[in-house]
Amino acid sequence: MSDFLKLVGEQIRYIRKAKGLTQQTLAEKSNLQLSYISDVERGERNISLETLEKIITSLEIAPIELFNFNSTDIENDLIEKRMIIESLRALLQERRIDEVRFIRNVAQEFVKTVDND
């Protein structure tokens, strides 16, 4: 996936959570599938402008808010996120394969639960 898709997806997630919306609520408001919203937020969907408009309208924001990537809060969050991911990578590097698989499975279940919020 492109960095731009991931950045837009992270921005949508950030705004959605800041507004206290679940993925399910955003999906309903935008007339999109929950799985589609989840894919967009993870940067795994290359969405059309029409779909982007539905999401922006449902979030009740101006389009410029979605593309305001210069926000220091968002930049700081992304930097911190990358640092945490790197520290997790270093931590997992020293573990046995069965332990890494177990941690991956736990993480996947956690993400499924969070994505449904």
TrEMBL record:
InterPro entries cross-referenced by the UniProt entry: Cro/C1-type_HTH, Lambda_DNA-bd_dom_sf, TransReg_Diox_bact_type
Annotated organism of origin: Brevibacillus fulvus
SMART domains recorded: HTH_XRE
Annotated protein name in UniProt: Transcriptional regulator with XRE-family HTH domain
PROSITE patterns xref list: HTH_CROC1
GO molecular function terms noted in the UniProt entry: DNA binding; DNA-binding transcription factor activity
Keywords: DNA-binding
GO CC terms of this entry: cytosol
Superkingdom: Bacteria
A Pfam cross-reference name: HTH_3
Span of domain HTH cro/C1-type: 12-66
